[in-house]
Amino acid sequence: MNRSNVLPQSIYTTMVSTLWPREQSQRVIRNIILAIFGSMLLTASAKIQIPFYPVPQTMQTMAVLILGMIYGWRLGAATVLLYLAEGAFGLPVFAGTPEKGIGLAYMMHTTGGYLVGFVLAAIVCGGLAERGWDRKPSTTALAMLLGNIVIYIPGLIWLSLFVGTEKAIQFGLIPFMLGDIVKLILAAVSLPLIWSALKSK
How many folded domains does the chain comprise? Predict the structure, then answer.
C-alpha cells in the first residue's frame, strides 16, 4: 500500500523555515538564535503600552500568537518557555516588572494563568500554521481567535481564584476584547500578505 495515500498531506512549511531555511545540522543553531530573538521581542511587547480604549494595551498577546504562527508549534512553544524561564530567574521581562515584583512570586500572582496560556496559544497557533492556516485571512483570523481563547481560559480561571469569577471577567477580559479584535484583524491581513509576497518571488 502506498503510504502517501494513507498519511494526511496537511503539514506546510512554516514561515520562518521559508525565510531562513537551514540544513538539519544547522537547524539547532538557527532555532537557538530565533528563540532568543523571540524572547526579546516578547519582553519588548510587554513593556510598550499603546493608548487604547478602554484601557492601554500591550502587544504581548499578539506577539505570542504571531511567533507561534511564524515559528511553528515546537519553536514557538520553546521560545515562550525560554521567556518564562528568564522571568522565573528574576529578569524583569514581564509587564509590570520589576515594579510589581519579579521571579516566581510575580508569576504565581494574578497574571500567572495568562503566562501558562501563552505557551498553550503558541502551540495551538503554531500547529494550525503548520497546516496552512496562516495563508488565508479567514483561517488566520480563526487561528488567532482560538489562540486568544486558549490564553484567556487559564488566565481567567487563575485570576478568579484571587478576585472571583465576576471580577475576573470584568477586569481580565472585557477591557481587552476590543484591542484583541484589532490585533486579530492586523494579523489576518499581514500574514497572508507576507505569504503572497514570498510566493511572488
Answer: 1
